[in-house]
Amino acid sequence: MEKPATRIDWTANSCRLLKATAAEFEKTRPFAGLSIGTGIHLEPKTVALLMTLRAGGARLICTGNLNSTQPVTVEFLRAQGITVFATQTTDPAAHARSLEAVLAEKPDLLLDNGGDLFAIAADRLYANLLGGTEETTSGRTRLLPMRETLAMPILVINDSPIKQFAENKHAVGQSLFESYMRFTNRSTNGKRVTVFGYGACGKGTAACFRNAFSTVSVVDIDPVTSLEAHLDGFATPLREQAIRSADVIATVTGFPGIVTAADLPLIKDGAVLMNGGHFPHEIDVAAFRSHSDVVDIDRYEADFIDTFHLKDGRSFHVLGGGHMANLAGPRPLGNSVESMDIGFTLQARCLERVAKRGVGAESCIVPVPADIDAMVASAYLDLAR
Ligand SMILES: NC(=O)c1ccc[n+]([C@@H]2O[C@H](COP(=O)([O-])OP(=O)(O)OC[C@H]3O[C@@H](n4cnc5c(N)ncnc54)[C@H](O)[C@@H]3O)[C@@H](O)[C@H]2O)c1
């Protein structure tokens, strides 16, 4: 018999590790009597994680990240009786209201992505907050200065070696490459691509464009990392030359102001600029919009592309307004299901550890415990054999 199925069903069925974890949690109920506040992209893969936490007995209060909330996902979660405070928005004030609404419920645990929730909690600590998890590099950087104030277990998923290679390296590279194709429908063959940042995400991005027959240059502020890129066979020109020569510029550093209005004289005619870093501040799109050298902007509304025309006749394109390209634009799918299945299983196991008081305040902003890494790796390999 034929029956309609959705992307959420497809994703849930593809997340085999989470499915197995949910089946176990239904018996062990590690979150019985506890609430979890979540601030992470509301898209189908997150649903698989949230349903796993709920299978473990958690009451969920959810919001998303800036610009990546998918209305169908929100509808689905609400239909499951889960509390969601989120709208699809690029307005930081609207997003801040959703974060406040989650924290007003005083969840026992927080699952954060980018440090949005813990940063507010650090200002207004409440007694029942046990700790939680932070998903990403940018969140770790943001929360580290608040370590003494937070003084509770916060396990950083990003700092698991598994997350580094499974998601940041392999999946971000693939999905940024896929996003370039999806947004532009342009080829990569023979194109000169400059990747800013040669951390895990940059490594995968550089490799994927090279595998797609582009000539790839890497710019990293750290000379040791630049040497690694050089020895990996990438060109490592100085920053100015790397911008001048690029047909495509991809930023994946986690830091603001990587390409700014000061670079307008350098940008090659026809260049495509895209960001894969967590926050939309790596390419200073707002400064481009108001700069006196920019005489016209074409907004390809349905395609999420802005074309900036410069006084001297050059033009260049920005994808997704400088937001994470793999979660922006038409039909954004984000990282591969398998990579998120692994990363979100680390999330579920780390939250379980905090819920069971298996880690203390000394574990504030520390990597995933090694035994959890080993358990998740073995479980994935068992499924793959
Ligand atoms: N798009 C996604 O799906 C996704 C997934 C995971 C992580 N991220 C984000 O991607 C970003 C990078 O993550 P990562 O794990 O690769 O980080 P990382 O810290 O491993 O690497 C960042 C690299 O950027 C370099 N860098 C810093 N400032 C620079 C500058 N001004 N110019 C050139 N290079 C500079 C650093 O030296 C470092 O090598 C973060 O914002 C992270 O949150 C995005």
Automatic annotation (TrEMBL):
Belongs to the adenosylhomocysteinase family. Its EC number is 3.3.1.1. Pfam families: AdoHcyase, AdoHcyase_NAD. Signal peptide: none annotated. The keyword Hydrolase applies. Its cofactor is NAD(+). Keywords: Hydrolase, NAD, One-carbon metabolism. InterPro entries: Adenosylhomocyst_ase-like_sf, Adenosylhomocysteinase-like, Ado_hCys_hydrolase_NAD-bd, NAD(P)-bd_dom_sf, S-Ado-L-homoCys_hydrolase_CS. Residues 168-332 form the S-adenosyl-L-homocysteine hydrolase NAD binding domain. GO terms for molecular function: hydrolase activity. It comes from the Bacteria. It is an enzyme of class 3 (hydrolase). This is Adenosylhomocysteinase.
